[in-house]
């Protein structure tokens, strides 16, 4: 499972929520990202550093882009549907996709946002599995 890779990145290497998810997903899904590529989501942590859209949500969206966009998102037949499915799942779980709304539900000082990023990994895996099953 994807979330089994999280402690290595989130706790052991001290990456933020978005960075940990992208790094774990890169390993789990063999996305082919290089070390430098993964820096691009650093600003997503803490709700884009402002409490807005959760960094875990944004990282999951980035992984979905890597899986479903071949060249241009607006030419992809898959990206809108799969991202909307993922967004519905976050909203069902937390009632929001905003860090400022999600954090009070799952943040614990000793674990930081571990519960949120584990849920994000579950949502990512569920979304991909359901979407792939629907495409058949």
In short:
The chain has seven helices and no strands. The protein has helices at residues 6-12, 17-29, 45-51, 55-68, 79-94, 99-106, 114-135.
Any overview of this molecule?
By secondary structure, the chain is an all-alpha fold. It has one domain (2-135). Helices cover 64% and strands 0% of the residues. It is built from seven helices and no strands. The chain is globular and about 40 Å long. The two termini are 23 Å apart.
Topology:
Layout: H1 6-12, H2 17-29, H3 45-51, H4 55-68, H5 79-94, H6 99-106, H7 114-135
Helix pairs in contact: 1-2, 2-4, 2-7, 4-5, 4-7, 5-7
Q: How many E strands?
A: 0
Number of helices: 7
Number of domains: 1
Query: What is Rg?
Result: 14 Å
How helix-rich are the residues, as a percent range?
A: 55-70%
Largest sheet, strands/sense/barrel: none
Low-confidence stretches: none
Features:
mainly alpha, 64% helix, 136 residues
């Amino acid at each position: 499972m994807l979330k089994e890779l999280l402690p290595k990145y989130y706790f052991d290497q001290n990456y933020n929520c978005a960075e940990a998810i992208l790094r774990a997903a890169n390993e789990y899904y063999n996305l082919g990202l290089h070390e430098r590529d993964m820096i691009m989501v650093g600003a997503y942590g803490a709700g884009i550093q402002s409490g807005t859209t959760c960094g875990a949500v944004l990282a999951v969206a980035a992984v979905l882009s890597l899986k479903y966009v071949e060249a241009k998102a607006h030419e992809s037949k898959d990206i809108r549907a799969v991202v909307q499915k993922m967004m519905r799942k976050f909203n069902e779980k937390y009632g929001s996709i905003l860090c400022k709304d999600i954090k009070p539900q799952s943040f614990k000082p000793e674990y930081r946002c571990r519960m949120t990023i584990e849920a994000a990994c579950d949502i990512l895996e569920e979304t991909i599995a359901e979407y792939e099953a629907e495409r058949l």
